[in-house]
Specification:
It is found in: Cytoplasm. The chain is of the alpha+beta class and 348 residues long. The chain is built from nine helices and 20 strands.
C-alpha cells in the first residue's frame, strides 16, 4: 500500500475542499484495506475511509489521523449477478452493466463516487435506489475484527440511510453484490416523472436500456451533476440536502404555511405515514435561486440543490452558505433541511 504524510485531501474530493490528512494510506486490495484499518484501530488513532470523495465535506483543518483511500478494483458479472469491489468507479460500473444489457442500476448513471459508498448512503436517483438490487454487502467489521457478509435484509436500507451510515465507526465496505435483470434490452419500469416526460412515455413503461441510460446522463449533465473539471457547477457534493420527510403533524403545519402563501409544494407518500417534499423546491421558493451567492461558494447555476466551489472557496465558505439556506428555508416554511454529505471535522 502507498503511504503519504501530511497529504492534501482537497484533490480527493469532488468539492475540492478540505485541509490535509496527517497520514494518507491508499489500499488496492481487500487485504491492504483490512491491514490499514487494523493498524489504525490498534494504534487507537482516528480513521477516515474515503472512496471517490463525492459525498464528503472535510474541514479546512483537515484530518488529524489516518485517511484510508480505497482504490480496490474488481468487476465480476456472472449471468445477472454483479459483484463490485468497493473502489470501483460507480459511473463506469453502471455503464458496463448497460453494455451487458442488464437493467437495475441504469437510472443511477453518472453518479460520481465509488461502488463501496453506494450501500452506505443507499444511493438513489430518478426513481431507483441501490437497495432495490443489492443482495449482499461484504464488509470488515471493526468491532468483531472479522470480514462479514450482510444480506440486504440486514442492511437496514431506507431513504438515504443504511446500517453502515447509522454506525459509521463499525463497518468498512469491501464488496457489493447486486441482482440485475435481463429484460430483452429494456430498462427497468420508469418510476420518475421527469424521466417519463422526457422520454414521452407513461410511468411504469419500459424503453430501450441504452435510451434510458443516455437520457439520465443528459438530465444529470443539464443540472451540473456529471463531473467536469472545467465546469465549476460540478465542483460539488451533488445534492447537498436530502428531501425532507415530514410526519403527519409536520405536514399539516407545512400545508398551513403553504396556504398562507398560496403555494402548492410537491409531495409524495413515504414510509410510516410520512410525506416527502422537495428540498430543491423549498430552497428556490425561499428565495435562493440558481447561482445564489456572491462569494467563492454559490449555488449551482444549473441546480438549486448543489452547493459549489467556484474555485477559491474554503470549507467554511461553503458551510456559511449552507447555513444561510437551511435557516432561510426554516424561516420561510418551518421545515428543517438536513445535509446529505458526510461532515468531517465540521458540522452544519
Amino acid at each position: 500500500m502507498h503511504v503519504t504524510e501530511n497529504a492534501p485531501l482537497a484533490p480527493l474530493t469532488t468539492l475540492r475542499l478540505g485541509g490535509p490528512a496527517r497520514r494518507l494510506v491508499t489500499a488496492r486490495t481487500d487485504a491492504e484495506v483490512i491491514a490499514a484499518v487494523q493498524a489504525a484501530d490498534g494504534a487507537g488513532e482516528p480513521l477516515l475511509v474515503i472512496g471517490g470523495g463525492s459525498n464528503l465535506v472535510i474541514g479546512d483543518a483537515g484530518f488529524e489521523g489516518t485517511v484510508l483511500r480505497i482504490a480496490t478494483t474488481g468487476f465480476r458479472l456472472a449471468g445477472t449477478a454483479l459483484e463490485l469491489a468497493a473502489g470501483e468507479v460507480w459511473a463506469e460500473a453502471v455503464a458496463r452493466t448497460v453494455e451487458a444489457g442488464l437493467a437495475g442500476i441504469e437510472f443511477l448513471a453518472g453518479i460520481p463516487g465509488s461502488a463501496g459508498a453506494t450501500p452506505v448512503q443507499n444511493v438513489g436517483a430518478y426513481g431507483q435506489e441501490v437497495a432495490q438490487t443489492i443482495t449482499e454487502v461484504v464488509a470488515y467489521d471493526r468491532r468483531e475484527r472479522e470480514t462479514v457478509t450482510l444480506p440486504a435484509a440486514d442492511c437496514a436500507f431506507s431513504y438515504r440511510q443504511s446500517r453502515f451510515k447509522a454506525d459509521p465507526e463499525r463497518y468498512v465496505v469491501l464488496r457489493v453484490r447486486f441482482a440485475l435483470e435481463a429484460a430483452d434490452g429494456a430498462c427497468s419500469p420508469i418510476q420518475y416523472a421527469e424521466v417519463a416526460k422526457t422520454l414521452g412515455v407513461s410511468a411504469g413503461e419500459r424503453v430501450p436500456l441504452r435510451t434510458a441510460f443516455e437520457t439520465v446522463l443528459a438530465l444529470r449533465a443539464g443540472k451540473g451533476m456529471v463531473l467536469d473539471p472545467a465546469d465549476h457547477d460540478t465542483w460539488s457534493a451533488g445534492s447537498f440536502f436530502t428531501n425532507p420527510l415530514l410526519t403527519p403533524d409536520q405536514y399539516q403545519a407545512f400545508q398551513r404555511c403553504l396556504a398562507e402563501r398560496e403555494l402548492a409544494a410537491p409531495a409524495w407518500p413515504a414510509p410510516d405515514g410520512q410525506t416527502k417534499t422537495s428540498a430543491a423546491w423549498l430552497i428556490d421558493k425561499a428565495g435562493f435561486g440558481k447561482g445564489y451567492g456572491s462569494g467563492p461558494a454559490t449555488l449551482s447555476t444549473k441546480h438549486t440543490l448543489a452547493l459549489t466551489n467556484r474555485g477559491r472557496a474554503t470549507t467554511e465558505d461553503l458551510l456559511s452558505l449552507a447555513r444561510e439556506i437551511r435557516d432561510g428555508v426554516h424561516a420561510a416554511f418551518g421545515v428543517r433541511l438536513v445535509n446529505e454529505p458526510v461532515m468531517v471535522g465540521v458540522e452544519l
